Recover the amino acids of this structure.
């Protein structure tokens, strides 16, 4: 942890850089967490680079009734579905869909929820009360039901799905950010910054938020996991991603009619979901443990 | 010494973690007889609490180990006792009062129930009425109104909570009471009250007591004998008069007394002992105090000082091999 | 005590009101004309306009909202656009299935999850602990509806033991409840484990040990009560999630409950039905939370005495 000569570094900056190293080292010790990280990175690579090997028109959505409902073979490694589409290719493309939806949802929820939480935590009293009451209203509604209601009102489709899923998560991010902010606000370097006459906005951006990063990143990974599950569920009942876009949940819905004859149709998309969600859960857990000072051996 | 209540002989206790071995107690000898109060004095980290926990066999399961030595409680060898047997002994023959009364009581159970618990565990009475009576009796003994037994810990003050803890410890009239800094967390005024209470009860029940403290004032007030501990060993021991009034002392003891602020003297600075206690994972060869001792000699760095005893007063320091030598009486008051 | 209950109940109302406002506002964005939907594409425009007047659809938003709320308070949630029957009666027919699934799932997950969590904490780092943690990680990653499908594959299609469709007998609820219980169980295992671990580290546990109490005694008399308090709160909150999940599970198992009602009303743009069912779900979940809060005050003496003091 070298002391830099950069005049703009403050003590909290240096603390942060050194801390990142410590956290990473602690994370590395956790085998499961590393497995999760590697699997997830592989997933991201697959999602990002799949257009290089696969063509959306020909490989993913083109129907070919001559080769429909085939069992796994050398030609089609996981078999074909009821429209003759290669299941493996659709699952791979489905990872793009899930990851994109997940990232956007969490991103939006983090941005909006984070701002609400930061303002609430920093300014306290009336603003805090008001904002948290509003959050409570949203929290009183079960997430899936609220998503169904929003999709129901706005109609199925990608954007509406994103809106529906983000809204459900905003209150939770607001809560986490708020409690991080409150606990950091109590620390002395914030008082010191205020005493120097630093503007509120600057204090929040440069001092408080960077130190909240830990719990927030944990929440992000865990929420991405639940988002992927949520989108799969909604698509399963027809309210999520619409056909012919391959989404693991809707693939499972289509597989129902062919459960007994083509079990592969129902097995592999489910496994894909489990792998994606599990890897994210492992990362989130690993991060949480790595950040917990009590667990250092 | 068959009639000793507590007889610790050559005790070695270690804490073993993935990274290191911590030598907490290194060759401790201690004897306590019926009705005596021994003050176990030392800085934080000297091994006092570890010693007490060893007597209770309450060392942390995965890390605390009694490497060597014997602990005899009223003739029973503790180190070889089964957990079942120990459970019968804890609370009944030997009790412990811990440092922080704020957290020592379960917040969701009434204080009366918590006192009754120790009676029920050791099957002291057969009917509920008898237990209730005894609880009332005990509460009166610690000067609390019996009506308060249905209250919860958070409804009592710190001093009252500690009195409940003492009540629990003495409910079964144990032969030995281990009190680990029982008044450290309390106000000075309450401190005096609690100490007085403990003394009174101790006399009433004729319990022996080991009072662990770092406060020499408490020692003077409450103890018959004193053992001064440093880095896991007892480096000086004797009656309370020996420790406070005798001419000869271990350099560490001298340092301890000098670091106490004195109302009457006109000193302008306090005189702390230079340096820090040695790293318990890496103790020095020779005398443990050698690194800080103002009287350190060559031999101190190489050889562990033996115990020098005169008239029951023991000092473990090479300085005294001449003045204490040739004494016929080799029995120390605390050993 | 009654005053406390009353106060909390009253606090529920603004929240429910706000929810109704939010839902109603969201419905404003729904494309399409309900009157048109009801009369069909071939009906003449005049008829549609007349129906709109009759239904009050041309009134300003606030007027419509206030009418809606005043009706709702009297128990009238309007009629379904799709079936024409009263929304309340439709819900009444179906919500019991949904409630059953959610409740059974919660009970199953508690019966298995809490004891496993306790054992896991006591024997930390042992084989059982490791298995418990691994399996709970796995279970939270399995989509309940997929688990449901797999269960159907095994128990209906292969073994022919359990029915896969409908809500006829108690047997039809076994698989849906298990499918939902799995993820909830995992959450409970981990929560119980972590609260127990915290409790075990507390000083009063050390005091109990020094009294000579056995491991079992300490768990039953000291650890459990303190550990269960935060868990009960979680159960309350999670019940709402279970209601949401039941929505999708009903689809898998062809059970006609509140969830299917909601989904159908979404697909057929049946706004009154949708709003009514969402409100009902919110009401249900708030009630459960209220119950949990009341239960909590009974269990935690610190809260109880606070209450007694201030009342």
């Amino acid at each position: 942890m070298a002391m830099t000569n950069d005049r703009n570094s403050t003590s909290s900056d240096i603390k942060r850089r050194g801390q990142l190293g410590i956290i990473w080292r602690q994370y590395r010790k956790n085998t499961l967490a590393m497995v999760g990280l590697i699997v997830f990175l592989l997933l991201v690579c697959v999602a990002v680079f799949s257009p290089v090997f696969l063509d959306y028109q020909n490989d993913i959505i083109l129907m070919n009734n001559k080769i429909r409902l085939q069992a796994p073979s050398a030609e089609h490694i996981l078999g074909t579905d009821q429209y003759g589409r290669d299941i493996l290719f659709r699952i791979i493309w489905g990872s793009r869909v899930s990851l994109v939806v997940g990232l956007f949802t969490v991103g939006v929820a983090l941005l909006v929820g984070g701002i609400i939480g930061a303002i609430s935590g920093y300014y306290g009293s009336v603003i805090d009360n008001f904002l948290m009451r509003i959050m409570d209203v949203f929290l009183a509604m079960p997430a899936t039901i609220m998503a169904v209601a929003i999709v129901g009102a706005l109609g199925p489709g990608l954007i509406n799905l994103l809106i529906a899923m983000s809204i459900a998560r905003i209150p939770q991010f607001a809560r986490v950010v708020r409690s991080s902010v409150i606990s950091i606000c109590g620390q002395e370097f914030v008082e010191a910054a205020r005493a120097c006459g630093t503007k509120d906005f600057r204090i929040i951006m440069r001092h408080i938020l960077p130190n909240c990063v830990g719990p927030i990143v944990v929440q992000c990974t865990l929420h991405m996991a639940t988002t992927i599950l949520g989108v799969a569920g909604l698509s399963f009942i027809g309210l999520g991603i619409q056909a012919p876009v391959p989404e693991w949940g809707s693939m499972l819905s289509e597989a129902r009619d062919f459960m007994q004859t083509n079990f592969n149709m129902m097995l592999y998309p489910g496994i894909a979901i489990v792998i994606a969600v599990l890897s994210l859960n492992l990362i989130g857990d690993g991060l949480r443990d790595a950040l917990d000072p009590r667990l250092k051996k | 010494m068959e009639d000793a209540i507590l007889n610790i002989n050559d005790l070695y206790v270690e804490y073993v973690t993935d990274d290191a071995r911590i030598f907490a107690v290194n060759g401790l000898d201690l004897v306590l007889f019926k009705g005596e109060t021994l003050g176990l004095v030392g800085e934080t980290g000297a091994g006092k609490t570890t010693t007490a926990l060893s007597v209770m066999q309450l060392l942390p399961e995965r890390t605390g180990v009694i490497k060597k030595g014997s602990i005899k409680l009223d003739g029973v060898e503790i180190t070889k006792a089964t957990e079942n047997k120990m459970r019968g002994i804890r609370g009944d023959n030997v009790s412990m009062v811990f440092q922080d009364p704020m957290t020592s009581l379960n917040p969701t159970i009434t204080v009366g129930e918590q006192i009754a618990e120790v009676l029920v565990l050791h099957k002291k009475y057969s009917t509920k009425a008898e237990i209730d009576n005894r609880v009332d009796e005990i509460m009166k003994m610690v000067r609390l109104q019996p009506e308060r037994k249905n209250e919860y810990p958070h409804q009592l003050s710190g001093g009252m909570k500690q009195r409940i803890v003492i009540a629990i410890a003495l409910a079964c009239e144990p032969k030995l009471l281990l009190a680990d800094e029982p008044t450290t967390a309390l106000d000075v005024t309450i401190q005096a009250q609690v100490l007085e209470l403990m003394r009174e009860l101790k006399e009433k029940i004729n319990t022996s007591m080991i009072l662990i403290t770092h406060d020499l004032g408490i020692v003077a007030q409450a103890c018959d004998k004193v053992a001064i501990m440093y880095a896991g060993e007892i480096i000086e021991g004797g009656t309370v008069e020996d420790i406070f009034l005798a001419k000869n002392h271990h350099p560490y003891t001298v340092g301890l007394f000098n670091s106490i602020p004195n109302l009457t003297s006109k000193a302008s600075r306090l005189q702390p002992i230079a340096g820090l206690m040695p790293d318990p994972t890496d103790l020095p060869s020779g005398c443990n105090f050698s690194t800080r001792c103002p009287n350190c000699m060559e031999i101190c760095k190489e050889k562990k000082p033996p115990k020098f005893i005169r008239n029951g007063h023991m000092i473990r320091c090479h300085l005294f091999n001449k003045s204490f030598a040739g004494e016929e009486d080799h029995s120390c008051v605390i050993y | 005590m009654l005053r406390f209950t009353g106060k909390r109940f009253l606090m529920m109302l603004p929240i429910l009101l706000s929810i109704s406002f939010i839902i109603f506002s969201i419905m404003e964005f729904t494309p399409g004309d309900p009157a048109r939907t009801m009369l069909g594409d071939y009906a003449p425009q005049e008829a549609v306009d007349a129906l709109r007047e009759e239904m009050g659809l041309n009134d300003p938003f606030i007027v419509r909202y206030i009418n809606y709320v005043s009706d709702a308070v009297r128990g009238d949630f309007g009629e379904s656009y799709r079936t024409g029957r009263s929304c309340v009666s439709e819900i009444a027919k179906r919500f019991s299935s949904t409630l059953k699934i959610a409740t059974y799932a919660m009970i199953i997950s508690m019966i298995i999850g809490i004891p496993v969590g306790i054992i896991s904490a006591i024997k930390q780092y042992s084989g059982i602990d490791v298995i418990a943690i691994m399996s709970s990680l796995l279970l939270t990653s399995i989509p309940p509806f997929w688990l449901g499908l797999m269960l159907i594959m095994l128990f209906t299609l292969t073994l022919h033991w359990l029915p896969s469709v409908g809500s006829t007998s108690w047997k039809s609820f076994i698989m849906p409840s298990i499918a939902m219980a799995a993820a909830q169980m995992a959450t409970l295992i981990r929560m119980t484990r972590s609260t127990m671990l915290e409790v075990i580290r507390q000083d009063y546990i050390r005091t109990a040990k020094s009294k000579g109490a056995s491991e079992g005694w300490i768990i039953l008399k000291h650890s459990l009560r303190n550990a269960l308090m935060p868990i009960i709160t979680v159960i309350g909150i999670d019940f709402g999630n279970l209601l949401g999940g039941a929505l999708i599970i009903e689809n898998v198992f062809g059970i006609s409950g509140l969830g299917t009602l909601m989904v159908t009303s979404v697909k057929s743009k049946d706004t009154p039905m949708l709003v009514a069912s969402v409100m009902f779900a919110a009401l249900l979940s708030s009630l459960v939370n209220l119950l949990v809060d009341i239960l909590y005050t009974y269990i935690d003496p610190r809260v109880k005495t606070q209450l007694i003091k201030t009342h």
Summary: The two ends of chain C are 9 Å apart (CA to CA).
